Amino acid sequence: MAFALGVDTGGTYTDAVIIRDESEIIASAKSLTTRTDLAIGMGKAIQAVLQEAALRPDEISMASLSTTLATNALVEGQGGRVALIYVGFRESDLDKHGIREALKGDPALVLAGGHTHAGEEEAPLDRAALKTFLESHAGISGFAVAAQFATRNPAHELEVAQIIKETTGAPVTCSHQLSSKLNGPKRAVTAVLNARLIQMIDRLIGRAQDTLQDIGITAPMMVVRGDGALMSAEQARERPIETILSGPAASIVGARWLTNVEHALVSDIGGTTTDVAVIRDGKPMIDPAGALVGGFRTMVEAVAMRTHGLGGDSQVHPVTEGLQGGVVLGPRRVLPISLIAAEAPEVAHAALDEQLRSATPGEFDGRFARRVPGVPVDGIDARGEKLLERLGEAVMPLSKLLQTRLEGSALTRLVDRGILQISGVTPSDASHVLGRLDAWDVAAARKGLELFCRKRVGSGDRLAQTPEAMAQIIVDQLTEQTALTLLETAFAEEDSDFGVPAETLARHVLTQKGLKNHRGLMALDAALNVEVVGLGASAPSYYPAVGQRLHCQMRLPEHAGVANAVGAVVGRVTFRRSGTVTSPAEGKYRVHLENGPQDFPDSEQAMSALEQTLTQQVEGEAKAAGAEDIRSIVERDIRSARLEARDVFVEGIITVEASGRPRVALG
Q1: 437, 520: one domain
Q2: Which value, to the nearest 10 degrees, does the dihedral of the CA atoms of residues 252, 253, 257, 260 take?
């Protein structure tokens, strides 16, 4: 028998499952994700699932990891300090495709150099300016390099990377290694995000491998990519950007395996995000434009998914304008008050009680901060250093941590870097108050919601009269925002051209009236015309109401709470690469390769050479990932133009896909 271990590290929980012979779940377990050291929660979940399955560690034949860490980091704006070397472009190009937003104030150097569309050198590389820049910018955790037409000739990207490595020793991401497509600014964004994630994902994978070894599991470890396929841990360390949407993609693969659905929306609610995707003809839809996460459109091939900052641990924001008021959830994740109180009960309850005794509600009531050990603090400003010194290793109420208004901005920067975590009211706390959850400190949740109730709306009344009423408002808002997310996905995937953005249609008064079965002079009915598979540990608490709201069948499969871990086990190793043949002159056919352009006198000869190179690359990557019984599929897209009664070759694009099951899973 073959026993495969799947592990998923989410924002709140780490899940583990063991599947026997790729056909039967024999054990599953959950443990709190320990942000301070992910290995602690991971180890607890693995030990628990081994105990439930009554297996020895050496009986595990494959281990596979999916994670929402990269997705959450981009949604929440976290990660290391990076620098972009932008070769052959203009300063104004930094404003395209969200490059400045992706940099988040980190440095960028626009450098002379780059190539033409045909792969010829456009201008010499300015090596002196690069070296001056590197000498004056310390504390960079990773560099991103994007050069003009690097996918047609990567020579300048490779040379810049070599100089950076020799000068700084820091990891370097070259844009042409992440995508073979044109569009330099978009490749630059992808490279920046990859560089920002390198240290974070490297720490996660390293700790995961250490944990497996300490437990006694010697099987090689795989990692789930954003398209649901598997790659080796070493490959994930080199290209962490490919793990964005890893956890959500694994959940889609898991949902299909658990339910065998052919057509459905899959909605996975975690602690930080809700991820919605479409299964059509039994397969998850792939986003042709590249993964969209945290507002950034990347060139990473991934499951077509809408990721929203909405989860069980979403920050609850009061809406005090108007006579009624209300709440809005997300997009930032915070630690639930019930959880921080379970971990630091004396500090949490003392602060909550003191705030409740005060006659005047405070701005920071029910909010706490704690430091995340092990996160680098290079480049933080003086105010940030003062906050960290004041906080130390303790849990502290924000009302005591922040002493001036200006320190609020410093706090935000520390949270963005992942150095600090904030605790506050969340839907998880509301569920504790309503009796739907009892995992953590229910009394602290009640106190937190009582403090939240005291905020005043436009009429002067309290936001709610009781913690229970406040909790119901929060849960109802989660239902509403989840329903809107599903509606947006459905409208976006419709074949019909409505001529209106999906977000507008989902919120349109006619849609909302139809969902309420309006009856007047007009009869309006609206419903989601496809079943929804609800996943996530909290799905049974929240999703039945969503199904009622949308008048659709809501399927909550057994093991829905560990679907990500299931998907991590049952996926395939798959690699794809594309390449281009151009014709810069009559009778000349140019293949654009990793080591530079190569010319051929015949188009078929050039296409065959490219196909052979790409096949060797993807089959080599699949073998390096541990795949066996590898099969390759080749697609050719030849573009020609009619000229003087004959077809003239313009461009040829070849895509090769190699796929197989992990060798160790075959038993």
Answers
A1: no
A2: 60
